[in-house]
Specification:
Strand content of chain B: 35-45%
Strand content of chain A: under 5%
Number of strands of chain B: 20
Helix content of chain A: over 70%
Order of helices and strands of chain A: HHHHHHHHHHHHH
Largest sheet of chain A: none
Number of helices of chain A: 13
Number of helices of chain B: 9
Structural class of chain B: alpha+beta
Largest sheet of chain B: 6 strands, mixed
Radius of gyration of chain A: 22 Å
Distance between the termini of chain B: 33 Å
Helix content of chain B: 10-25%
Shape of chain B: globular
Oligomer: heterodimer
Largest interface: A-B, 20 and 31 residues
Structural class of chain A: mainly alpha
Chain lengths: 278, 353
């Protein structure tokens, strides 16, 4: 790590000394950042300029419920993606097995599918007449149509690939030699995982789950297909926009933006805390 | 404790190791030498169980451990980069290796090793806060904490200065004597390999091409490949002109030499070999002029603790290595007297036997 940063420091040009190279790059980077920041900033200014509407949105029970549902479903989704995605990431990182490339491609597939298509696919499996939806309803009384479990499966479909990919990167970052040495020093495979791999990679794994959480909370396309009701925050915003126009949707959008960013930054802060051992 | 390797074969990524056969007794250090890619690390990893053995066996005191999982082999492995656990401080790194049933007393065991290796002042430091020598000592202490039967060290002195190397040698000697360990030690440096009594094995393309006592291998290399690995780089095809039980006379072009080495099997083409460090240089004619040539300094290169000279007018490509302090007196084009001591000259079979 140290030597890599030294090499990077050695080969990276000093921006002050090469303005002809760095200025155009800085301009492109600024345009890119502006394309993200400006719409959010304009929306925030508009929302803050109408404090009454903002207050009304905070006090509105249906809006509050939609936001709570989003965060609740996002947290469940993140936990499930961690429980199921992290072991898969470990397998992909550490083992060479037949079909590994295919497994990786399958994991990444939801990233390439339009989210409405993802929602329809999920509906075919978990809907009232779906492959799993019907038996699960009959045996356990578990309904995915228009319910929290439905919101979660839709969110999981689109956000789990982020967990798997980021967790795999976290595991790849753990030097294999540390594991070898741990094994030679008498630690079994599980003990090595628990005492060496996880303590080194936990921040990366937390980042992976955070990414999945952020993706889940912001999901609209797939959720709206399987569960228009109960409304998650994005669906509620869409509903307000269709029924009352832009002005009504702005206050809720701003609330969701602030809360999402707050949680996301907090989780990122924990996972990016400077590591004392590197 | 005896480590016995019988016809061990293994391989990975197109590289095949073996068959390798060797026996190393407890309290013995085997220095393993060979060029990069010779299979030294693969051999160590096969012993510790990271690389599967395709045939042959590894046993410890007669117990077959060929297919045993690494954690049950009692073979501690210290890789070249040491692989200290970055999230643990020195004490925790050492305590990591204490056996589970003894973990209640882990602190006491770690403290003993910390004292033994002089790590008291850095016991709460993390690996990135340690010097190379300290990190090396922590890796040793950690390996010994699991009370291994065999200790495998992959180039333990590669990044150390002379003082650091001596400290490692002292620690190893103590471990060998007090703990009765089998130590296998990969090195590129013949002096490093010879510093600890025991055995020396030269590996090339996954096979042991010569093994034995270090002095025996050093003085009677099996062929030019072994000689080159050992740093005997002055090698010339030689013609034997006379032979008595005490000495052999040889000729290289117009130069005649006497050597005390025994000749290889008769009728075998031979090479005369001597290490650059064994060539003696004098500014004035020495008292004993046997095996002494008049030479001219062609190039002079000071490289750390050695000055390397290329000398003309002697056997082709003659090189000598002297301490830099002695080289300060030499200049390019200067005429010198080079002596190739008879007891340092070796007769090496020109082809592997």
């Amino acid at each position: 790590m140290h030597s890599l940063s030294r090499i990077a420091h050695t080969i990276m040009p000093n921006p002050k000394r090469q303005p002809l190279v760095t200025l155009p790059l800085a301009l492109l980077a600024s345009l890119f950042l502006a394309s993200i920041v400006i719409p959010l900033a304009v929306m925030s200014i508009r929302a803050l300029s109408s404090p009454e509407e903002l207050k009304a949105a905070v006090l509105n029970v249906t809006i509050r419920n939609a936001i709570i549902l989003s965060f609740e479903a996002g947290a469940i989704t993140a936990a499930l993606s961690g429980i199921f995605g992290i072991p898969l990431a470990w397998l992909l990182s550490r083992f060479r097995f037949p079909g590994r490339t295919l497994v990786q491609a399958v994991v990444d597939l939801p990233l390439t599918v339009p989210h409405v298509v993802a929602g329809i696919s999920v509906l075919f499996v978990y809907g009232r007449q779906g492959l799993l939806g019907e038996p699960l309803q009959q045996i356990f009384g578990l309904s995915f149509w228009g319910s929290l479990p439905g919101v979660v499966v839709a969110m999981l479909f689109v956000s789990a690939p982020y967990t798997v990919s980021a967790a795999r990167i976290a595991f790849d970052g753990v030097d294999r030699r540390l594991e070898k040495v741990a094994r030679s020093l008498g630690a079994g495979p599980w003990s090595t995982l628990w005492r060496v791999v996880l303590p080194i990679s936990w921040r990366g794994l937390l980042s992976a789950v955070t990414l999945s959480y952020a993706r889940a909370v912001s999901e609209f396309g797939s959720v709206v297909i399987i569960a228009y009701y109960p409304m998650t925050a994005p669906v509620k915003i869409y509903d307000l926009f269709l029924r009352f126009g832009l002005a009504q949707a702005i206050a809720v959008s701003f609330l969701v933006l602030v809360l999402s960013m707050g949680v996301f930054f907090m989780l990122n802060l924990i996972s990016r805390k400077p590591r004392s051992f590197t | 404790m005896t480590l016995q390797v019988e016809q061990l074969q293994s391989g990975r990524s197109g590289f095949s190791l073996g068959p390798v056969t060797m026996t190393v007794e407890s309290g013995t250090c085997l220095a393993l030498m060979g060029a990069n890619g010779a299979g030294k690390t693969t051999f160590l990893e096969a012993l510790v169980g990271f690389v599967k053995c395709t045939s042959g066996s590894v046993s410890l005191d007669g117990r077959d451990i060929t297919h045993e999982v690494p954690e049950r082999r009692r073979i501690a492995y210290v890789p070249q980069d040491l692989a200290l656990f970055p999230h643990l401080d020195v004490t925790q790194n050492i305590a990591f290796a204490v056996k589970r049933k003894e973990r209640r007393h882990a602190a006491g065991r770690s403290d003993e090793l910390i004292r033994e290796f002089g790590l008291e002042s850095v016991s709460k430091h993390y690996p990135h806060q340690l010097s190379s020598g300290q990190a090396q000592r922590v890796a040793f202490a950690r390996a010994l904490a699991m009370e291994p039967a065999v200790l495998l060290l992959d180039e333990p002195t590669a990044n150390l200065d002379l003082a650091g190397q001596r400290s490692i040698h002292a620690s190893l000697r103590r471990s060998l004597l007090e703990r009765g360990l089998v130590v296998i030690y990969v090195t590129h440096d013949i002096l490093d390999g010879m510093a600890l009594t025991g055995q020396l094995a030269i590996l090339e393309r996954g096979r042991v091409i010569q093994s034995g006592r270090p002095d025996a291998v050093f003085h009677r290399p099996a062929d030019a490949r072994v000689a080159t690995h050992l740093g005997i780089t002055n090698l010339w095809p030689a013609q034997i002109t006379d032979e008595t039980p005490a000495m052999v006379r040889v000729r290289i072009g117009s130069h005649g030499f006497v050597c005390h080495a025994r000749r290889p099997a008769s009728n075998t083409p031979v090479l005369l070999g001597i290490g650059p460090g064994e060539v003696e240089l004098y500014s004035t004619p020495p008292a004993d002029l046997s095996n002494t040539l008049r030479v001219v300094v062609q190039t002079l290169q000071i490289n750390g603790q050695t000055a390397l000279l290329e000398l003309a007018d002697g056997p082709p490509g003659l090189r000598a290595a002297v301490p830099p302090a002695q080289a300060e007196n030499f200049v390019l084009g200067q005429a010198l007297w080079a002596r190739l001591p008879a007891d340092r000259l070796r007769l090496i079979p020109a082809k592997a036997q």
